[in-house]
Design brief:
The complex is a heterodimer. Chain A is mainly α. Chain A is 71% helix and 0% strand. Chain A has two domains: 52 residues, no CATH class; 228 residues, MetI-like (MetI-like fold). Chain A has 15 helices and no strands. In chain A, helix 8 packs parallel to helix 15. Chain B folds into two domains: 68 residues, no CATH class; 237 residues, MetI-like (MetI-like fold, Orthogonal Bundle). In chain B, helix 6 packs across helix 9 and helix 15 runs antiparallel to helix 16. In chain B, 37% of the residues are buried.
Chain lengths: 302, 330
């Protein structure tokens, strides 16, 4: 342990004391517990989703499926509403992310121009909304009276700009060298041209991070859809799952009833959870890095 | 906003801005009038138009919409209410025993969440910081961030499965000879359930900023502490913790800012009439009043009250920290 004094590690003492070695052991145990506690629920849900209902109800399923079967998966996957809702989630996420990125990039670029007259006010307009919001009821009345109920716009517009993301992007644009943009301006490029051809190509990494931030939050969102959508064919998959767990039984229970499996509630819920988590688990290893760097970017700005 | 002055110069044609940039740069910060600024930077301002429209419609209009808290509102009638009723609705909720019940619940849940979920990431970050094996450290980090990426609906659904009478938690209870409990039907368990799930979701992700802050601490300080004979524990106490204080304070203020809004979505998904005595908070109560019972004015009055308390809390916390530790959000 003491040998590897790589320069990234701080040299905090010539050799670890006995007390410190005991601490290291305890630390290892604690962190193992953290990992187990974090992962156990996932494994448990997967096990339940693959088990037969009567084993689940008897409380006998923990880590390993009992009475292994894929019947419940077949049942849920054959529900056409489930697929419709999944497709809706994809559509909402793509459209909302696109709108968000365009608006956020434009505004962040404007805010990054330190010499711009009125910049402080423009920043203030955005930052104030972080600490004070109109609240649920006025928003609800607004969306309803704009006639956006049962429209994709009610999902993709009201949260188009996240101020935290905006500030991260602004900080990034501010860190770009001014000379490039000045040179481009001298060459006769308009502001739009500079943004599109000079700034955006230099900002690919931060834009990718923002796309992920927005996409994950839209993918996971449910409340706007819950408030403003009434028709089952418009729901995102989060609402499908919500209705399932709230017992406001959707099409699945209808399908289940037809199959004579009405009581298979627990395994159907587990299967639906697994099917909604899978896309996130699949992309998670690849996106996690970008998220961490995005948070750091925001922190630098402080 | 800036659109009106932009019409005369269609983009594509050679326009005034480029030649103007050079003198502007060389003369530095000369005060310009609005007219000059708009002429020079109209393209920049035009980029702000759509975002400003967004803020106006979806952020500031609802703030103005709060006037319905002081007006009689009828669904289908005037969007801003029919006529003034003054503080009628404020008096109404102040004399509503349910309101005080949910107010107390909000404070209790908010405090519990803050007390548990604010320090734990610091502890976990300190523990991670002592891990020498880099791959192990990265593995633990990756795993602990995972719950942050899940939808609150998925978290609620998983909780319901884990906490059901046949679920994993009750299996554990039975192993230790206890009686199975329907945790989500028991008011006495709700706070524990809520805070632990909040912990599960946020602790790992919360470490990121602290782990980043550790790397900014001057290594010479550790060297000096070591020469003075400080043990590792003392080095942590006297060097590491003071080193991350600005981060801690900033995050604390931000946490206090969301104090009043306590996990509205999660509570809405997890509570039920049986657990209302402990689970019902201001935001869920006003949701039921407004959206479910259509008492918009009454609910808006409560919402405005909640938002004002939230704003006051942030401003106060920010002010106190600026005075005492010299860190503030702005």
């Amino acid at each position: 342990m003491t040998v590897g004094t790589r320069n990234r590690q701080r040299p905090r003492g010539p050799r670890p004391t006995r007390g410190y070695r005991i601490f290291q052991a305890v630390n290892g145990v604690i962190l193992t517990v953290v990992v187990i506690v974090t992962l156990y629920p996932f494994v448990n849900i997967v096990a339940r989703s693959l088990s037969e209902e009567h084993y689940i109800v008897a409380g006998q399923v923990s880590l390993i499926p009992r009475g292994f079967n894929l019947e419940t998966y077949r049942l849920v996957l054959s529900d056409s509403i489930f697929w419709t809702n999944y497709r809706n989630t994809v559509v909402y996420t793509v459209v909302a992310t696109l709108i968000s990125i365009v608006l956020t990039t434009c505004y962040a670029y404007v805010l990054s121009k330190k010499q711009l007259k009125g910049r402080t006010a423009l920043v203030g307009i955005a930052v104030f909304t972080m600490f004070f919001s109109g609240g649920l009821i006025p928003n609800y009345v607004l969306i309803t009276s704009l006639g956006l109920r049962n429209s994709i716009l009610a999902i993709v517009l009201p949260n188009a700009i996240n101020v935290f993301n905006l500030l991260v992007m602004k900080a990034f644009f501010e860190s770009l060298p001014v000379e490039l943009e000045e040179a481009a301006a001298v060459d006769g490029l308009s502001t739009y041209g500079i943004l599109l051809r000079i700034v955006m190509p230099l900002s690919k990494a931060v834009i990718a991070t923002m796309v992920l931030f927005y996409a994950v939050s839209f993918w996971n969102s449910w409340f706007a859809a819950f408030l403003y959508l009434d028709r089952a064919d418009l729901f995102p998959v989060t609402i499908y799952l919500r209705n399932l767990i709230a017992g406001a039984t959707g099409a699945t229970s209808a399908g289940a009833a037809a199959d004579g499996l009405t009581q298979a509630a627990a395994s159907i819920q587990s299967v639906t959870i697994v099917l909604t988590v899978i896309p996130i688990l699949l992309v998670y290893p690849f996106i996690q890095r970008y998220f961490v760097s995005g948070v750091m970017l925001g922190a630098v700005k402080g | 906003m800036g659109r009106s002055s932009t019409v005369d110069a269609p983009s594509g044609t050679p326009n005034p801005p480029p030649p103007r940039i050079e003198p502007a740069l060389s003369t530095g910060r000369r005060r310009r009038t609005w007219r000059q600024s708009l002429r020079r930077d109209w393209q920049l301002y035009s980029l702000a138009v759509l975002p400003l429209l967004f803020f106006a419609v979806f952020r500031y209009l609802p703030m103005i919409g709060n006037v319905i808290a002081f007006r009689r509102f009828e669904p289908g009638g005037n969007v801003l209410g029919e006529h003034w009723v003054g503080l009628h609705y404020v008096r109404m909720f102040l004399s509503d025993p349910t309101f005080w019940q949910v107010f107390a619940n909000t404070l209790i849940l908010g405090t519990l969440t803050l007390v548990v979920c604010f320090p734990l990431p610091i502890v976990l970050a300190l523990l991670l910081n002592e891990v020498r094996a880099r791959r192990l450290k990265r593995f633990v980090q990756s795993v602990s961030y995972l719950p942050h990426f899940l939808s609150v609906v998925i978290v609620a659904a998983m909780l319901m499965q884990l906490l059901s009478v046949d679920g994993a938690v009750n299996q554990l209870v039975r192993v230790f000879g206890g009686e199975a409990t329907a945790f989500l039907q028991e008011p006495g368990w709700f706070r524990t359930v809520y805070v632990s799930s909040e912990m599960w979701q946020t602790v790992g992700w919360g470490t990121i900023l602290y782990l980043a802050a550790f790397t900014t601490i001057d290594q010479d300080l550790y060297e000096a502490a070591r020469i003075d004979g400080a043990s590792r524990w003392r080095q942590t106490w006297h060097v590491t913790l003071p080193g991350i204080r600005p981060t801690m304070v900033t995050l604390l203020i931000l946490n206090i800012g969301t104090f009043m809004a306590v996990g509205f979505e999660k509570i809405l998904l997890l509570y039920n009439p049986l657990t209302y005595p402990t689970a019902d908070v201001i935001s869920t109560y006003l949701y039921r009043m407004g959206v479910e019972s259509s008492s918009f004015s009454y609910a808006a009055a409560i919402g405005l009250f909640e938002a004002l308390i939230g704003l006051t809390l942030v401003l106060t916390a920010n002010q106190i920290s600026r005075r005492t530790v010299g860190t503030s959000l702005w």
